[in-house]
Amino acid sequence: MAESFGVDVERYDRTRPPYPDALVERVVAHSPGRAVLDVGCGTGIAARQFRAAGCTVLGVDPDERMAAFARRSGIAVEVAAFEAWDPAGRVFDAVVAGQSWHWVDPVAGAAAAARALRPGGLLAVFWHVPHTPPGITDALAAALPDMPRPAEDGYRTLDALAADGIRASGAFTEPRRWTFDWQRDYTRAQWLDQLPTSGLLTRLPPERLAAALDGVGAAIDALGGAFTLPYTTVAVTAAVPGGPTRPR
After folding, report:
1. Left, alpha or beta for 74 (phi > 0: left; psi -120 to 50: alpha)?
2. Sign of CA pseudo-dihedral 11, 16, 18, 23
3. Lesser CB count within 10 Å: N end or C end of the chain?
4. CA distances (Å), 235 to each of 87, 96, 113, 164, 188, in order?
5. What angle do helix axes 106-116 and 154-169 make, rounded to 10 degrees?
6. Rg of the Cα trace of the chain?
7. What is the pLDDT of residues 64-94, one digit of tens each?
């Protein structure tokens, strides 16, 4: 499913939210330098943010369509599954993965990250956790009753798998968990524009997708045609031993 997100790269890049500036700043502050490797970089959303923070960024992504879009904004991207990607002697100060680490084997991925990091280098994998209003999630579930319903506590599973994989690699310090709370306002049109980029919806036939959008649109209408969505962005981080002492 990971490569299904490339079916409409323009929509994906236009509608997916960026990451909190505080997260980017904290990753940079905890890294020994500003050479960043972005795993599963997609269209370059996080990569552009790290570049704006003064970093040099190389992306790795398995989908050539996503990679091609990211390159249009000046991000260098190599196409490969991260576990099989060869750093060719290059080393980085930080390896980051935004909304993508669940597509990577957690142990092999952590080991690959360690090979690409210099001593003291930071691995930071992170996800947005949306706290979607119940009426909207109920409408989506009613339109698509046979599809798994997203659960906020599912992100706890992702966090735990990432941390366990980092520990199992034996290459990092004990993982830490960072959280960043923020919110974003959505109109009906904006939410329905981004919804087709989400998970299993990227593979729905047009008629089922249309039915889902109709149901969710009606739920947003019942909220007044717009809503504020609280998010928590959760990061699991760990460092390669060695290197300078950094803030906690």
Report:
1. left
2. negative
3. C
4. 24, 10, 16, 14, 29
5. 50
6. 18
7. 999 999 999 999 999 999 999 999 999 999 9
pLDDT over 90 (residue 247) = no
The dihedral through the CA atoms of 97, 100, 156, 201 has a sign that is positive
What residue type is assigned to position 143 of the chain? A
Beta pairing partners, 37: 58, 95
CB atoms within 10 A of CB 29: 10
Phi, psi of 93 (to 5 degrees): -90, -25
Which residues, other chains included, contact 98 with Cβ-Cβ below 8 Å and sequence gap of 6+? 19, 38, 40, 42, 45, 46, 126, 127
CA atoms within 13 A on the CB side of 184: 19
Calculate what percentage of the chain has a pLDDT beyond 70: 91
Q: Tell me how far CA of residue 36 lies from CA of 31, 56, 112, 124, in angstroms.
A: 9, 6, 14, 11
Cβ atoms of 112 and 86 within 8 Å: the answer is: no
Q: What is the distance between the alpha carbons of residues 244 and 33, in angstroms, rounded to a whole number?
A: 10
Max CA separation in the chain (angstroms): 56
Nearest residue to 9 (alpha-carbon basis) of 51, 41, 53:
41
Q: Residue 74's CB: how many other CB atoms inside 10 A? A: 11
Residue 2 has pLDDT above 60, yes or no: no
